[in-house]
């Protein structure tokens, strides 16, 4: 995966835009469409001198509003008749692969310190959130060896700087680095952006796409 500096900047701008959002919930029970309509009628956007980047229906009677700046978010929060809150934010993540087991056997703090020291990285809030171990064929093609990957959480500025490096020195190796994006997937309908617990769709088999449990499927070829 090769990302240009422009792509990284575009991603960063997109993340900033996502952060300027509010979840609007009415104080009295009503449908999201009704809330959306009332916001347009009662919240005087023009006189408040602000720009709205997004206004769409959310789940559980809510409406999602996007703003241009933090000051505009503050103004909207003071609007009566609605409970407005910011959505929870997840920090940026990177994935580093092909790490030797000698380094993978270190604890989180030791491994992070090695990454910082070898690559001259000055980051305070940088932590490992997941480790992955898998087998890989030797360069000679004979036998297999274990290698590791780590997913690291860090702030946006450091995330951008790390991606520009493409590879990091860890131990005696240059390890590739990638942007890590988590996408929710439902294991009931196999759709995205939600989980099975909250799924209201029919069950779908991941082998043949039929409306039955995959365990009961007799298909020999996968369609999903």
TrEMBL record:
Q: Which domain of life is it from?
A: Eukaryota
What protein is this chain from?
CCHC-type domain-containing protein
């Amino acid at each position: 995966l090769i990302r240009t500096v422009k792509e990284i900047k575009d991603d960063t701008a997109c993340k900033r835009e996502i952060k300027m959002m509010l979840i609007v919930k009415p104080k009295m029970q009503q449908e999201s469409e009704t809330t959306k309509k009332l916001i347009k009628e009662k919240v005087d956007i023009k006189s408040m001198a602000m720009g709205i980047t997004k206004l769409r229906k959310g789940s559980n009677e809510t409406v999602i509003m996007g703003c241009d700046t933090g000051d505009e978010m503050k103004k909207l929060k003071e609007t009566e008749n609605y409970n407005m809150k910011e959505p929870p934010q997840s920090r940026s993540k990177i994935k580093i692969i092909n790490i030797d087991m000698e380094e993978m056997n270190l604890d989180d703090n030791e491994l992070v310190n090695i990454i910082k020291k070898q690559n001259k990285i000055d980051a305070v809030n940088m932590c490992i959130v997941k480790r992955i171990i898998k087998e890989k064929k030797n360069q000679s093609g004979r036998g297999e060896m274990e290698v590791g990957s780590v997913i690291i959480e860090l702030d946006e500025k450091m995330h951008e700087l790390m991606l520009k490096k493409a590879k990091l020195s860890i131990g005696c190796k240059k390890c590739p680095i990638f942007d890590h994006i988590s996408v929710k997937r439902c294991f009931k309908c196999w759709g995205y952006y939600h989980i099975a617990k909250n799924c209201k769709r029919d069950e779908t088999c991941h082998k043949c796409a039929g409306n039955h449990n995959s365990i009961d499927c007799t298909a020999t070829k996968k369609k999903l």
